[in-house]
Amino acid sequence: MIETLDIERPAKELIEGLAAIGSATASGELSRLGIRDPQIRGPLSWTPGTTVVGPALTLQFMPKREDLYRVDEYVDPERQLHRHVLYHTQPGDVVVVDARGDMSSGVFGEMMLTYFKGRGGSGVIIDGCIRDYPKAKELGLGLWLRGVTPNFHTQTNIVPFAVNVPIACGNALVMPGDIIVADDDGVVVVPIKLAPELLRAASEHAEWEDFSRMRLAEGGDLRKYYPLSAEARAEYEAWRDKQSR
């Protein structure tokens, strides 16, 4: 019997707060907290307009070696580790897959993704492909992928190897339980220990950006309002206090 570890999930309030900031703000603020490059490169949004924020369930693929993994797909379905990562799904979870950038293996298909959605999963980040995309895109999940393929997950070059272990997805380290922030700008990995500090800094950043955006739309001086200058800070603080009344 295959047994895999679950993840520790962050507080709901932390997820909800980070959902309001977007990947660009998260990336910029993480760089100030010492994480130079938190972006997962390669996977792009295949569901434009979707934003997903949630803890990472991780799935690692490795190169296929036929003496260790045969292709007889349905002889014993429970050997398929891509099923086991989905068994851990709780509402709001995001599955992050190191598929080695492989463009010929569909990590999940419509049926697996339907199960994930039914369990409350919110998004899938794959450094590789899925299959059944015409139907999968109708499920309401966020999908960040390198592409799509008609092939199933072990048909060609790779096999699922481990669940909820550290992975390298798009050349970014993802630890099980890290928070993923994904939108049309891309995918950012938030180290769980930095998430509270990121939320505090990003919330302040988003607030002064609202003020600066308003002033710039009115024809304000870019040098004064972006980034917010010391000259404009008193004006911003007065505006912020008025908004909170």
What is the element layout, followed by pairings?
Blueprint: H1 12-18, H2 22-32, E1 39-40, E2 44-45, E3 52-63, H3 81-87, E4 94-98, H4 110-118, E5 123-126, E6 129-130, H5 133-136, E7 142-145, E8 147-148, E9 158-163, E10 167-169, E11 172-174, E12 179-183, E13 186-190, H6 195-217, H7 222-225, H8 230-244
Tell me what you see in this structure.
This protein has two domains: 12-191, Glucose Oxidase, domain 1; 197-244, no CATH class. It is built from eight helices and 13 strands. The protein is α/β, with parallel strands linked by helices and 245 residues long. The longest helix has 23 residues, at 195-217. Helices cover 33% and strands 22% of the residues. Strands 1, 2, 3, 4, 5, 7, 9, 12 and 13 form a nine-stranded mixed sheet that branches. Strands 6-8 form a two-stranded parallel ribbon. Strands 10-11 form a two-stranded antiparallel sheet. Helix 2 (22-32) crosses helix 6 (195-217).
Features:
single chain, 245 residues, alpha/beta, Glucose Oxidase, domain 1, nine-stranded mixed sheet, two-stranded parallel sheet, 8 helices, 13 strands
